[in-house]
Specification:
By secondary structure, the chain is of the alpha/beta class. The chain is built from nine helices and 14 strands. It has two domains: 112 residues, Aspartate Aminotransferase, domain 1; 214 residues, 3-Layer(aba) Sandwich (Aspartate Aminotransferase, domain 2), CATH 3.40.640.10.
């Protein structure tokens, strides 16, 4: 017998609970404007008559969504004709394998990796399954609290590519410039600062980024690959792990995550139309980060940042309290004030405030005020 679900009268309905400030490292906060538009168009896309959740991935409505989203990415990032843009699934975690499968197999030299944090380490570990990996620098000795200088790198003269992580979400270190070293194609995991600032795509062989931190929701990953590197992909690759498959089929070799692509498109429009493009987005993010780092720097040691000051992330502000026993109390008090998901990763400890693109200034200001209040109330 088929059962019928009945909503309990106590079940909260839309609009009955005030939104909190979400400092989660991902899936992360979305622009309120994007959420509202997705809500308004949920039952029926304008001019279509059905929900985006029901739209065929080979229909004219999705043709427009996919084309507009891809074009907006090209405009925002200044992507030239030398690079292809594809939208795939599997997150950055799958790219840890796809990159070496396509770019390292059959190459005479190793893949060079700069291991600047947890995700760089994970990427190098997966690449070893496909071929030789040379770690050109590893920051493990200081728990990944800084980035290397050019003089510290030990690059391979015949490297198949050089892999970097633009922003380490867990440790809170970030390259503030395009990390171009040597002559090997530069491959970058941009997952946690993608679309947060301008980058010079022409300097990169391949860029990949999952969307759920700055660019949308979980389910879609952006891959930007230089066309000449597609020639490295071998015919013995599984079909869906071959970059050529996705380029040839226009990101529709299988059913793509239609809703995730739609939200990515909305976020691109928000950045273009509301935030002044990536230049404006970068200024917005830098100002938010400075608000919190100023509290750390003026706290007299009550708060201690994990990352060194010259490479601190604008995306993930990581710090510890003077007394580790206070961490739980700090997080509990923050949650009571509507500031959620501030607990640091277990490998770093302390606190992590992820202040991605869509984190409003008001949320950062409220966290700043709480940090100052907490220090005063605890004899700081």
């Amino acid at each position: 017998m088929e059962s019928t679900r009945v909503m309990d009268r106590t079940t909260p309905t839309a609009g009955t609970m005030e939104r909190v400030f979400n400092f989660s490292p991902g899936p992360a906060v979305l622009p309120l404007e994007v959420l509202e538009r997705a809500r308004d168009e949920m039952l029926s896309l304008p001019g279509v008559g059905i929900s985006v959740l029901e739209v065929s991935h080979r229909s004219p409505p999705f043709d427009r969504i996919l084309e507009e989203t891809t074009n907006d990415l090209r405009v925002l990032l200044g992507i030239g004709e030398d690079h292809e843009v594809v939208l795939v699934q599997g997150g950055a975690s799958l790219q840890f394998s796809m990159v070496p499968m396509n770019l390292l197999r059959g190459q005479p030299g190793p893949a060079d990796y700069l291991v600047t944090g947890t995700w760089g380490h994970t990427g190098a570990k997966e690449a070893r399954r496909e071929g030789r990996v040379h770690v050109a620098w590893d920051g493990e000795a200081t728990n990944y609290d800084h980035l290397p200088t050019a003089g510290e790198l030990q690059l391979s003269p015949d490297a198949a590519y050089l892999h970097v992580t633009s922003n380490e979400t867990i440790q809170g270190v970030q390259w503030k410039h395009d990390p171009v070293f040597g002559t090997a194609p530069l491959v970058c995991d941009c997952s946690s600062d993608f679309l947060s600032r301008p980058i010079d795509v022409a300097k990169y062989g391949l860029i990949y980024a999952c969307a759920q931190k700055n660019a949308g929701i979980a389910g879609v990953t952006v891959v930007i690959i230089r066309k000449d590197l597609l020639e490295r992909s071998r015919d013995d690759l599984p079909t869906m792990l071959d970059y050529r498959t996705h380029v040839k089929n226009g990101s529709r070799a299988n059913t793509p995550p239609v809703f995730a692509v739609y939200v990515l498109g909305l976020v691109c429009q928000w950045i273009k139309n509301r935030m002044g493009g990536l230049d404006g987005m970068a200024r917005h993010n830098a100002a938010k980060a400075k608000t919190l780092y100023d509290v750390l720097d003026r706290s007299g040691g009550f708060y201690h940042g994990h990352a060194r000051s010259d490479c601190r992330s604008d995306m993930n502000v990581t710090f510890r309290l003077r007394d580790e026993a206070m961490d739980k109390e700090f997080v509990k008090g923050a949650t009571a004030r509507g500031l959620i998901d501030l607990k640091g990763h277990r490998s770093v400890g302390g606190i992590r405030a992820s202040i991605y693109n869509a984190m409003p200034v008001e949320g950062v200001a409220k966290l700043r005020d709480y940090m100052i209040e907490f220090q005063k109330s605890h004899g700081g």
